[in-house]
Design a protein that fits this description.
It contains five helices and eight strands. An eight-stranded mixed beta sheet has the order 1-2-3-4-5-6-8-7, with helices on both faces.
């Protein structure tokens, strides 16, 4: 991969993160509602936002982290509204874990589904994945609904797999095959 891939949908453009995204990224990831099901840790400083951007901003990060993370932007304004992509890319087994985070201001408008479809398409067509999987806490009903809308099927449950907010949660594993 020579350049960071850019993905286009009807309303979105997915690009590499840039240093100029620092404040927008901090705004998104500092909202406890946004990070509630994603480990529950909120960003607190611009330095944390800059470290996140630095980790995923160019093609070299893909090979060193086995992760590709796009900035999800509104096509017309290029405003950053979230991130989406793959982590845990296992090239030998041709599989990767998909994840996404959107600003709460853009929930329930189909942006997450639109971004996810573009990421899935890229994973199967360009990364040559055989399997895309996703994990979510059992009571994250919105994520389960979206995964099922995208064609993912439940593979199983990791019982008491994650400890958050002083309790254990089951984690559901969903997958989609080429």
């Amino acid at each position: 991969m020579q350049t960071f891939p850019v993905l286009h949908t009807k309303r979105l453009t997915l690009t590499a993160l840039k240093s100029e995204d620092r404040d927008s990224l901090l705004s998104i990831f500092s909202d406890p509602h946004v990070t509630y099901y994603d480990g529950g840790k909120v960003m607190k400083t611009t330095t944390q936002a800059q470290h996140y951007i630095s980790a995923f901003k160019d093609v070299t990060s893909i090979s060193t982290t086995n992760t590709i993370r796009w900035g999800v932007r509104l096509k017309e304004s290029m405003e950053l509204i979230g991130t989406a992509g793959f982590q845990n890319w296992d090239r030998t087994s041709s599989k990767a874990e998909m994840g996404a985070i959107l600003s709460r201001d853009f929930w329930r408008d189909g942006y997450g589904l639109e971004a996810a479809k573009a990421v899935i398409n890229y994973g199967f067509r360009h990364m040559h994945l055989h399997k895309i999987y996703a994990q979510t806490i059992e009571n994250n009903h919105a994520a389960v609904k979206r995964l099922e809308q995208l064609g993912f099927q439940k593979e199983g449950t990791f019982r008491d797999h994650v400890y958050l907010r002083k309790q254990y949660y089951h984690v559901l594993v969903y997958s989609l095959f080429q």
